[in-house]
Amino acid sequence: MDGTLVGLAAFAAVIGLLAIRVPIAFALAGIATLGSFVIFAFRTGDFEPARAVRPTTSIVFSNSFDLIHSYDLSMIPLFIALGHIAYRADITTRIYHAARVWLARVPGGVAMASVVGCGGFSAITGSSIACASTMGRICSPEMLRMGYDKRLATASVAAGGTLGSLIPPSVLFIIYGIFTETSISALFLAGILPGIISLLGFLLVIFLWVKRDPAAAPAFEGTITLRDRGRAALDAWPAVALFVIIVGGIYGGFFTATEAAAICVSAAILIGFAQRKLTFRALWDSLRETAVQTCSIFLIAAAAKIFVAFIALTGVAPAIVGAVTDAQLSPVLLMAAIAVIYLALGMFLDPIGIMVLTLPLMIPLIETYGFDLIWFGVVVIKLLEIGLITPPVGLNVFVIANVVGKAVPIDRIFSGILRFLAVDVLVLILIMAFPILSLLIPGSM
Asked: Which residues cross the membrane (predicted)?
């Protein structure tokens, strides 16, 4: 039996299962196991299922075992725990409150503070969905109470939440680094400049929105003294310290990304207890939620590793590389085609699912064309960010819709998102056209 046909059929089957909401871990592992069994059973030409059992089980168990015992994978529960602990210790939300005070007089200041708060939250937690969910509960209701335009009050937080994928640390960068065998520390540093550019672009959208329609953001009424600004800035020092530990420690070569995560978790716990913002019950709840999220991600990662081994068995990747090489696509056309594929998948699937489904095919193509894998990782994460707010299934938009309830219809949130999407696409073009934006910081290590 032709392995390429089996591989292509497997891809179609996985997409079909995901479309009917089968959990991605079960879809990937199930199809990969069945596909491997079929290939081994027909290896001699005749169907011999007895000969397929041992090699199939070997692929399934050996690949999942090797992944779970990966040292780099240990940073995922650490960074997830850091996010939960920092939130319960009131470390992440202080960034928003500090930005809220400093930007109070600026038109659209609360919306801008929400985006800055999302960026700060992302710099600690590394999760876009968690960022949108947490900041949405804090920022959107406050803006709605102040009389902000409903589209601006919700879309700014939904868009700002996507920064969690790009600003280090990022769970998506960790998964990408593990599956492509690239430096996770370099990936973290590569996401800094694109993340800052994205954040500044969102602030520009809010500024132009409010300038064109002043009624969208009522002016602040009250008094903010220099002392208030100083106190707000000082209150945000734990979040700044944690970010400096992560980025400064990695950039300076003092420790690895995994060590940075462990140090930051310890620091967040100590700060939380020292400031009496963290209790033992809150710490226990944080660790419990960390265990649940970690198990979910590990199941997906293990299933993806099995799927990658199956794809290598089928020979689909070399066949696609050969077809693209024969077509003599220019690098620009190749990247444009890849962008279209990711944007299309982003309309329907979650970011982790898209990544583990596409990387087995994309990485051989990228290596054939000689592209830098660190730069491509930033491009992929940016594409996944865009998918989080792209209709009809923008996960961040649905998260915000659940937070605000019936106060803002989901179509209103999507209508406000379009302006932020335009900036995201522009930033994506800049990243693709100028790889130095991604490679400058890691290249200077």
From this structure: 110-131, 152-179, 185-210, 231-251, 295-320, 332-349, 361-380, 386-405, 417-441
Question: How many folded domains does the chain comprise?
Answer: 1
Q: At 340, list the tokens.
A: 């279209």
Give dist(CA 397, CA 399) in Å, integer: 5
Give the other-Cβ count within 10 Å of 248's Cβ. 12
Residue 345 domain-assigned (yes or no): no
Residue 77 to residue 61: CA distance in whole angstroms: 22
Say if 214 falls within a structural domain: yes
Q: What percent of the chain has pLDDT over 70?
A: 97
Range 49-58 contact pairs with CB under 8 angstroms and sequence separation of 24 or more:
none
- Cα separation, 46 vs 444, in Å, equals 57
Query: Using only C-alpha atoms, what is the Rg of the chain?
Result: 23
- Global pTM? 0.85
Residues of the domain holding 292: 72-298+435-443
Q: Please report how the helices 351-368 and 373-387 are oriented relative to each other, as an axis angle in degrees rounded to 10.
A: 150
**Residue 398 domain-assigned?**
no
No. of H helices and E strands in the chain? Answer: 22, 0
Residue 253 covered by a domain: yes
pLDDT digits (tens, 9 = 90+) for 284-299: 998 998 898 888 888 8
